[in-house]
Amino acid sequence: MDITLQYIDDCPNWKTADDHLRALRAELPDLVVTHQLVNTPDEAEAVGFRGSPSILVDGIDPFADPGAPVGLSCRVYQTPDGPAGSPTIDQLRAVLTRA
Asked: What is the pTM of this model?
């Protein structure tokens, strides 16, 4: 399973998402994570970047809100504990085990 972690340097939340993905590698040995730094508005538009961090599973963003704008910003995820800058490890596990 191919995971792409898209991010911008100015948003620290991608590091939390990366930590969660690293932890899940122990459970899901076929998990391959690639990092993609998005630098410009044109690049964000070209890849459909909906904020940092964005996590693509085999090229699809399972957390995407179709109405969310494309651009260079931090992203907000709805978690059981309220809004957060990254999905929880349990939310990621659920998405990855369904894929």
From this structure: 0.93
Q: Mean pLDDT, to the nearest integer, of 74-97?
A: 96
Quickly name the fold that domain 2-98 has: Glutaredoxin (3.40.30)
Domain ranges of the chain: 2-98
Q: Cite the DSSP H helix spans in the chain.
A: 13-25, 41-47, 89-98
CA distance 14 to 12: 6
The predicted model gives 70-87 an average pLDDT of: 95
CB 85 within 8 A of CB 74: yes
Q: Is 4 left (phi over 0), alpha (psi -120 to 50) or beta?
A: beta
> What pLDDT shows up at residue 65?
86
10-34 burial, b at 16+ Cβ within 10 Å, e below that, comes to ebebbebbbebbeebeeebeebebe
